[in-house]
Amino acid sequence: MTSLDQLFQILNRVLQIEPQQFRDEIGPKDIPRWDSLRHLAMISELEDDFEIEFGMDEISRMRSIGDIKESLKIHGVNF
Q1: Which residues are within 8 A (CB) of 48 and not within 5 positions of it... i.e. 6 or more apart?
Q2: In the chain, how many domains are there?
Q3: Which of 39, 52, 62, 66 has its CA 20 to 30 A from that of 27?
Q4: How far is CA 77 from the centre of its chain?
Q5: CATH number at residue 57
């Protein structure tokens, strides 16, 4: 499984994002289920699945799928 597939599975599981919604510019304003609680659940799953740990600054900057991908890249995840 690729890193992109892994990310999609997490976002689909936590936020129920459909494939056509999986674009870098999509964020909480576009996905009603993307509230603060689900954001933290998503962070937890990302950290567990990719075996990384985000700092509080990183977590607060994750405002879109593109932001999430950039944060994962900083931690060595390749897309």
Answers
A1: none
A2: 1
A3: 52
A4: 12
A5: 1.10.1200.10
* CB-based contacts of 10, cutoff 8 Å, min separation 6: 42, 45, 46, 49
Selection from 34, 32, 29 nearest residue 10 by Cα: 34
Give the global pTM: 0.93
Residue in the block written with tokens 């699945």: 49
In a domain, 79, yes or no: no
Could you give the CA distance from residue 55 to residue 48 in angstroms, rounded to a whole number? 14
Residue 38 tokens, joined: 């689900």
Domain membership of residue 26 as a residue range: 3-74
With residue 37 as reference, give the H or E element that holds it. Answer: helix 36-50
pLDDT in tens, 16-60: 998 888 999 999 999 999 999 999 999 999 999 999 999 999 999
